[in-house]
């Protein structure tokens, strides 16, 4: 949960069912933030943050769009409270982006040749036996 | 010194701004669609310390990114690649190239002198068309035998591989499979080759690679002619698929009359038989270790003796014997200067003098070669044999053999 004070409005119905999981992920996030950077590469330090952020959004996305276990109100509430990343979820709804790792990896403006990240290259298109680990979020391939 | 581009002062040091790098084939890599980034005034030249345009690219899959290291003026001055500092024509270190061409470059090392020198060069570049190398290299003579022997004919892409992972060497690399660096045992640190620096390489002083190449050149094997004087055949190996009989004939006719050329496509080799021993010896001397046809370095060896060749039947085509002939004739007498010359004919006069070494390998400049060939006049007797007339006959008739008909050999009086 974000550290800022939540809105006064009481959370919608079903919040107490998803709260423990989100609390757990939030705890993990706090640990990742406090983790020392020693022994890590420069780019590596942010990888766990991206990973947990992805996990949180994915949890809410799965509950609402896949399993249809939570109500529209609760989903909207989660997005509004910053539990789920609406921009990332918007991408997951598009074909070919179902497993997208993070938004930086499809930001072509940030690369030299206006390309996507290496993790966006399908495994079949990569050369045989090549292991990739993208520098943005440490993704090892999120495109099938 | 005014280094800002906006202040226009007289005699200001020029910063290089180029559109295309000067690179060798190896540094560019095998991908014809290479993408490069260009960084205007990206860093200082490692030789002249002036800012220059840095190009950066990946020379193919599983290669490390490369970038230009010296500015174009410094590269043009020595006719070298901007990245690897190896000669653009021969792919050899500067020290080796200068040694072989007998070029002595006295580049100023002092900072002020260097600036003045470079400034003069820049004005020279502006006046020239940019096709000829500047400095002493441009004035050098035709390439020497040493360069031909040492030169690389094909790109050596292993040079572009990633560096060895220093963490892995210490046993600390945690990246495992994903590590883009090479997980290999490094070469011995005591090896002189592992201690190189770009300035020494550029100025051609204590370059360990050059030392190694020059040592290798001095220890290069020589092809000794076999004892058996009847051998006039040369073995030509590493022909590949595209070099045919005509290519070999085009090259070897300059050394003397060719009796026969046999190509064995399966082994990718061929045999060139000369009519005389002297021309075969000349050909062997002129082409051993430096014969490059169509960009392929060919191996040249002496052929086996006639007797062994016929028994092994590996050399040429096994010819069916002509029926009804008496036994094989004795081999032609060996020409020797010590033998009695009955007709007072100088042996050399019967042979066309060899025209100078000429061949068209792609990486070589044509200008230097044409200069070499025009320096010696070609005698009218040295006309190339008409290709149609020298076709190997389907059946071997000793009576049609040119040497046995007394065309070239001096026969002892009956």
Characterization of this structure:
The complex is a heterodimer of chains A (144) and B (414). In chain A, 39% of the residues lie in helices and 0% in strands. Chain A contains four helices and no strands. In chain A, helix 1 runs antiparallel to helix 2. The two termini of chain A are 31 Å apart. The mean pLDDT of chain A is 90. Chain B is of the alpha+beta class and 414 residues long. Chain B has a four-stranded antiparallel sheet with strand order 5-6-4-9, with helices on one face. In chain B, strands 1-2-3 form a three-stranded antiparallel sheet, with no helix packed on it. In chain B, strands 7-8 form a two-stranded antiparallel sheet. In chain B, a hairpin with a 4-residue loop joins strand 5 and strand 6. About 11% of the residues of chain B have low confidence. The chains are: A mainly alpha (144), B alpha+beta (414). Chains A and B meet through loops of A and loops of B. Chain B: It is found in: Cytoplasm; Nucleus. Chain B: InterPro entries: Cwc2/Slt11, RRM_dom, STL11/RBM22-like_N, Znf-CCCH_RBM22, Znf_CCCH.
Overview in brief:
The complex is a heterodimer of chains A (144) and B (414). By secondary structure, chain A is mostly helical.
Comma- or semicolon-separated keywords:
heterodimer; A: 144 residues; mainly alpha; 4 helices; B: 414 residues; alpha+beta; Alpha-Beta Plaits; 2 domains; four-stranded antiparallel sheet; three-stranded antiparallel sheet; 9 strands; elongated; BUD31/G10-rel_CS (chain A); BUD31 (chain A); nucleus (chain A)
SSE diagram, text form:
The complex is a heterodimer of chains A (144) and B (414).
Chain A: H1 15-34, H2 47-66, H3 72-80, H4 86-92
Chain B: H1 25-28, E1 36-44, E2 51-57, E3 66-67, H2 72-78, H3 94-101, H4 111-127, H5 135-139, H6 145-150, H7 166-170, H8 198-203, H9 208-218, E4 233-237, H10 245-252, E5 258-264, E6 269-274, H11 277-287, E7 292-293, E8 296-297, E9 299-302, H12 306-312, H13 347-350, H14 366-375
Antiparallel strand pairs in B: 1-2, 2-3, 4-6, 4-9, 5-6, 7-8
Subcellular location (chain B): Cytoplasm; Nucleus
Biased composition (Basic and acidic residues) (chain B): 178-188
Biased composition (Low complexity) (chain B): 366-377
């Amino acid at each position: 949960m974000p550290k800022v004070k939540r809105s006064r409005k009481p959370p919608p119905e079903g919040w107490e069912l998803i709260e423990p999981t989100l609390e757990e992920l939030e705890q993990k996030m706090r640990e990742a933030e406090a983790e020392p950077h020693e022994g890590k590469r420069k780019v590596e330090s942010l990888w766990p943050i991206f990973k947990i952020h992805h996990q949180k959004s994915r949890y809410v996305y799965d509950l609402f769009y896949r399993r249809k276990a939570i109500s529209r109100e609760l989903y909207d509430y989660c997005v509004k409270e910053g539990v789920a990343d609406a921009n990332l979820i918007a991408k997951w709804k598009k074909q070919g982006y179902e497993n997208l790792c993070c938004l930086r990896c499809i930001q072509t403006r940030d690369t030299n040749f206006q390309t996507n990240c290496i993790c966006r290259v399908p495994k079949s298109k990569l050369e045989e036996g090549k292991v990739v680990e993208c520098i943005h979020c440490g993704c090892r391939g999120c495109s099938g | 010194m005014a280094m800002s581009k906006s202040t226009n002062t007289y005699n200001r040091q020029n910063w290089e701004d180029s559109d295309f790098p000067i690179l060798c084939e190896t540094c560019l890599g095998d991908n014809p669609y290479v993408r490069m980034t260009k960084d205007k005034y990206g860093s200082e030249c490692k030789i002249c310390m002036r800012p220059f345009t840095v190009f950066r690219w990946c020379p193919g899959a599983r290669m490390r990114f490369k970038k230009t290291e010296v500015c174009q003026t410094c590269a043009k001055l020595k006719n070298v690649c901007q990245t690897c500092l190896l000669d653009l024509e021969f792919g050899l270190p500067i020290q080796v190239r200068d040694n072989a061409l007998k070029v002595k470059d006295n580049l100023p090392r002092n900072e002020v002198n260097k600036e003045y020198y470079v400034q003069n060069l820049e004005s020279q570049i502006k006046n020239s068309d940019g096709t000829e190398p500047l400095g002493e290299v441009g004035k050098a003579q035709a390439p020497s035998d040493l360069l031909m022997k040492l030169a690389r004919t094909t790109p050596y892409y292993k040079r572009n591989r990633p560096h060895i992972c220093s963490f892995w060497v210490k046993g600390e690399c945690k990246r495992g499979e994903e590590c883009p660096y090479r997980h290999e045992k490094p070469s011995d640190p005591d090896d002189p080759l592992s201690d190189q620096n770009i300035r020494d390489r550029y100025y051609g002083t204590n370059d360990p690679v050059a030392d190694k190449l020059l040592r290798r050149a001095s220890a290069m094997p020589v092809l000794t002619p076999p004892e058996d004087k009847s051998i006039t055949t040369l073995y030509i190996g590493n022909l590949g698929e595209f070099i045919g009989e005509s290519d070999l004939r085009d090259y070897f006719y300059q050394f003397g009359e060719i009796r026969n050329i046999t190509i064995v496509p399966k082994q990718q080799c061929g045999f060139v038989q000369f009519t005389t021993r002297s021309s075969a010896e000349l050909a062997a001397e002129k082409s051993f270790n430096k014969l490059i046809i169509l960009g392929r370095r060919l191996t040249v060896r002496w052929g086996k003796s006639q007797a062994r060749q016929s028994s092994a039947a590996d050399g040429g085509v096994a010819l069916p014997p002509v029926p009804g002939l008496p036994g094989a004739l004795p081999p032609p007498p060996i020409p020797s200067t010590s033998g009695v010359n009955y007709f007072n004919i100088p042996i050399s006069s019967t042979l066309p003098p060899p025209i100078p070494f000429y061949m068209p390998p792609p990486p070589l400049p044509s200008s230097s070669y044409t200069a070499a060939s025009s320096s010696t006049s070609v005698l009218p007797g040295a006309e190339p044999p008409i290709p149609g007339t020298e076709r190997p006959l389907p059946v071997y008739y000793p009576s049609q053999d040119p040497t046995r008909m007394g065309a070239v050999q001096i026969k002892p009086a009956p």
